[in-house]
Amino acid sequence: MEGGLKMDVALAIERILIASKYFGCTDENTEEQYDKLRWNDKRIPKPTWEEIVIAWNEIKDLPNFGIIREKSELELKIDNLESRLKILEKK
Fold first, then answer.
1. Hey, where are the domains in the chain?
2. Lowest-confidence range among 15-19, 45-49, 68-72?
3. Which residues, listed in sequence order, are joined to residue 23 by a DSSP beta bridge?
4. Tell me, what DSSP letter sits at residue 2?
5. Less Cβ around it within 10 Å: N or C end of the chain?
6. 34 exposed, middle or buried (CB, 10 Å; 0-12, 13-18, 19+)?
7. What is the rounded distance in angstroms from the CA atom of residue 57 to the CA atom of residue 2?
8. What is the pLDDT of residues 57-90, one digit of tens each?
9. Among 8, 32, 36, 10, which Cα is nearest to 21's?
């Protein structure tokens, strides 16, 4: 990626589909790693790499980018907590 800001694949995915469900790692933020993700969300098909790049370009320069990133991280934590709660409720 050009410039100093490294692409955040997870955040780009969230731009396309909030609280999306997929399995795998996005730490390296590469196309190769993205291709290995298992898409578990039935709402839409797995976005193409090109769609991920477009989504990233839409958000990377927003003045409230830090807020968007924090919101995405909080939504993920909430989703994880809700999943754990459902498991506990079944016990």
1. 9-90
2. 68-72
3. 38
4. -
5. C
6. buried
7. 11
8. 998 888 776 676 677 778 878 888 998 999 999 8
9. 10
